[in-house]
Amino acid sequence: GEFWYWYQAGEHDHPSIGLARSRDGVHWRKEPRPVLDHGPYMSWDESAVGDPYALEIDGWLYLYYLGEDVARQQRLGLARSRDGVHWQKLRGNPLFELPQITPEVHMDERGQGEPAAWRQGNWYWMLFTGRDRDERRRLALARSLDGVHWGRLETIEGQAAWNRAVVCDPTVLATSDGVRLWFGGGDRPSPAENLDGAIGTGRIQ
Asked: Where are the domains of the chain?
């Protein structure tokens, strides 16, 4: 068997998604070119793609990812592949539209990213990060019957002093007794990736 790892790389403002493979988890072989690249001119992911998260569904690999347009709006999309190398983006992308800027603050009005998806029971579930106008970050929970069409359920925000402003970047591990969750957190809003924050853990029943 092999470990397969999809990752974000390339120019800082215009990354693509690559693939590396390993038999031992130590020595890795990279594909020479990106396996998922930017979209065409004027598309929703024209400027950048990143934050890949893969899930196997009915013999297909589904790759959930962040896409960015020229206005730097970030939304989530989906691509599908039989072999993990050649991907076809869904015509229905993006998965969620950004809310309009209104006097009411919405948790993802400035962007979405960092998806994490899993299957539990008859449903597919997803957590992703949303940014509001003040650069506060929270997690949104969504679910789907087919992995393509998603409905949003609730927003998860920090309840402690150390993550009161930022809860982001979820990673999940589905087990027989629930879903383990790891996430980043911070006590001050910031557009920067380096928040000088901490990592928390939890369980989704």
From this structure: 1-95, 102-205
96 vs 73: CA distance, rounded Å:
12
How would you write 35-86 as a 3-class SS string? CECCCCCCCCCCCEEEEEEEEEECCEEEEEEEEECCCCCEEEEEEEECCCCC
In this prediction the pTM is 0.94
Rounded Cα distance, 14 and 35, in Å: 15
Show the tokens assigned to 98.
């950004």
DSSP notation for 103-142: SS--TTTTEEEEEEEEEETTEEEEEEEEE-TT--EEEEEE
Q: What is the pLDDT of residues 52-69, one digit of tens each?
A: 999 999 999 999 999 999
